[in-house]
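This part of the workshop introduces the protein records we will be handling. A record pairs a protein's sequence with a compact description of its fold. Comparing a sequence with its tokens is the quickest way to learn the format. The record below serves as our worked example for the rest of this section:
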Amino acid sequence: MPSKTAKKAKPTKKSAPPKKAKAKPAKAVATVTRRAVTRIEPALGIPLPKKQADIPGFKERESFPIPKQGDKLIYFFCDGKAEGAGKMKDLLGGKGAGLAEMTNSGVPVPPGFTITTDACFLFYRTNMVMPRWFEEDMRKFMGRLEKATGMGFGDRKNPLLVSVRSGAKFSMPGMMDTILNLGLNDETVQGLIEKTENDRFAYDSYRRFIQMYGNVVLGIDKGEFEHRLEERKKKQRIKLDTELTVNDLKNIIQKYKDLIQDKTGESFPQDPFEQLRQARDAVFKSWNNPRAITYRQLHDIPSNLGTAVNIQAMVFGNMGETSATGVGFTRNPSTGKKEFYGEYLTNAQGEDVVAGIRTPKHISHLAKEMPKVYKQLKEITERLEKHYRDVQDFEFTIQEGRLYLLQTRTGKRTTAAAVKIAVDMVGEGLIKKNEALMRVEPAQLDQLLHPQIDPKAEVHIIAHGLAASPGAASGMAVFTAEDAVRFAEAGKAVILVRQETNPDDISGMNAAQGILTSRGGMTSHAAVVARGMGKCCVAGVEDIRVYEVDKKMIAGSHVVKEGDIITLNGSTGEVMLGKVDTIPPVLSGEFATFMKWADEVRRLRVRTNADTPQDAHQAVVFGAEGIGLCRTEHMFFAPDRIPIVQEMILASDEVARRDALDRLLPFQKDDFKGIFEAMDGRPVTIRTIDPPLHEFLPDKKQIEQEIEELKEKDAWEDEIKAKEKILDRIEDLKEFNPMLGHRGCRLGVTFPEITEMQARAIFIAACEVARGKKAKPPVVEVMIPLVGHVNELKNQREIVVRVAEEVMKKYKVEIQYMVGTMIEVPRGAITADEVAGEAEFFSFGTNDLTQMTFGFSRDDAAKFLRPYLTKGILEKDPFVTLDTKGVGQLITMAIERGRGARADLKVGICGEHGGDPASIHFCNAVGMNYVSASPFRVPIARLAAAQAVLGKTEYTQK
């Protein structure tokens, strides 16, 4: 029961809700936040919101009813009974729902209460000052917590201390804020000493609290606190925080207080309720801090969800050698192996493990140090995994030999691990195949296609660390998040090197190819975030010393400076000098099983966009069932062909043009032959020439410069005239808007001999392959681009059919072929019923269709699209995810009208959207026959097509 002294902590004038006059701490938060914004903005390429109302999602909730007095905004949990439940993630956040579920399941959880996401919404709608009635409600729940623990909040003899933690619906590790040991002040710290008879523990807890409060609530850079801590350790000639004496801790506490006074103009608050209010509000504000906004954008998490706040009685892992704190997973999050996986530190608090300040011990050591606790922890976490039927990421604290679970949530894992775990859990009978298919985000399959270090490559290993996230990455070493962003924007591959990462490094981690830290373990911030991003990571490399200010690291006798190239092997933990050769990945047996299940479910066929036999072969390995787009013009840019192409363009009459085309034909035929052989009887859609002719000519300025140089050297007149002829032709072909100009089928109509040459090359290649023994007879689909009027298609179709019949008659071979069109002009979609009279198939070129529907220039849209996304004008980039309301209506109309005229019309998509999971869901819904994606996105499309059948509608962008 709370003691009488606890009653003295009732509301006073000092602890009333803050008035406008006391705004200095808030100003400090705003100032520091904007400084952080300047580091984050370059990574996003957009200005971040400067006030809450600017944030997309905040405006979306303005129409929601504002919570009012009497609404339930706080949920209690204690002693095996919780008011909430695991299914209430929208309201309680993932952490709060997990605490409620664990409590109801009988897991030892410290008592506490969760303030809901609705309260977060209320906070923003009331100008970030909670109404008095809510403050009174929160006090009542603190009273319940006092009763449950038998301690008093602010009690001088028996103080109740609490943790204040964020908790959104979707896990955002390290992106929002946490405060531990709240309730300590100059008086309660003495009570804690008397109660525990451990003055070092009490002062260490106070030191930690002031540091976290000063950083999270008051906005003071954590480096300011760390600097003062390191100064004291250096003066005392000690290395570890645990070696600090009581006098050292007292000295540090006073320096922290002086820092707060200096930075804010106010002393560190002594009223526990004032501390609690400010900490709660800081957690609410952290929903919209720069790193949280960045993380949500990277992982496509809605902005209007808000965060819950979890207030929980503290349990202490820093009370001596029988106390500990740790984090773990029920299976290996890097490989998926079924093993108890985690790390812990004795005599420490939770942030010590994830921050990487000390290198933790593997959880297996706990079996030797505290065997009973280890056995209990293993039993509880195994039960949690079976209950949730998924891998659990858990946090625990051991206080003087007694175990407490602080959190459980679905564990983040690499895609390789996700696939293995999904397949294994089906084998164990925990889940069904269809549920396994929904456990992996399609875009994340890209992680499995990462290169690996070539085992034959010569390597110079300079250090070893923990293999925190698999894959291989090479790049120039950089030592700050800001530099990682800056160099990446300049087109450089970078490796971010840090002592340990923290949440503010999120932009640099996203920009980097790989991450290297000298501190931290497998569950450190760097490791967890890198695995979620699919980035290669080597952590806890204790053999290297990182000097972030000097922008260098030392590994033995080797000094690596900013700009030096290093290579990481995230699968082995090796750090190497220089760039090391890589090889394509070897896909696991579980991957093949998983994709086979996807193929059994999906309705859509999956093709690839490929212009070379090599790309075609790679796509077949990844499961492509044909080619949906082969761009013939890409073949013209080869060094041995471009002179002939330019000669064709410069020709003054048809005879000269045909002569050049006749010399191009063998090249085109050999290209198509190689592709047909690689596809081995699978359908191949070949698009006739699409870009304007000027793209094949040299740059105008280059030719002008060459003419000047020839004149200066007194070159032959004929040589100068030849260059001038090219310059004149460049001027002739110049267009004000090339994307809407002389290209696509318009070129074929103007110069029918080009279409004729390409058709002849296609069908000669097909006939030669059909007569040979290397591959099955080709299935040919000739696609005419940029058709806006049926007569354009009719004109080009007649040429293709005439040439096809001539070639097949000559070779005495029948080739299965079709002639269709690319629907990319809005008029073509609107008149699809007419177009279908000539077209045997439609393939939607959604890149151009999006461009023409929006009136956006693809090449120029980047200048304004990002602000459109930031301000909520557009929900998604329409060139990445299909605009279903606008462009989608044209597609739906075209399919309906086209099939109304030709019932067996084959329909597909070959723009970049063919590899986007959300767009694939739409393609499935409107009844397309296939999607076509780049070779390395074929597995993504296969899984997305299966999930579309199973009903998944929300996807995370890669």
Q: What stands out?
A: The first strand starts at residue 74 and ends at 78.
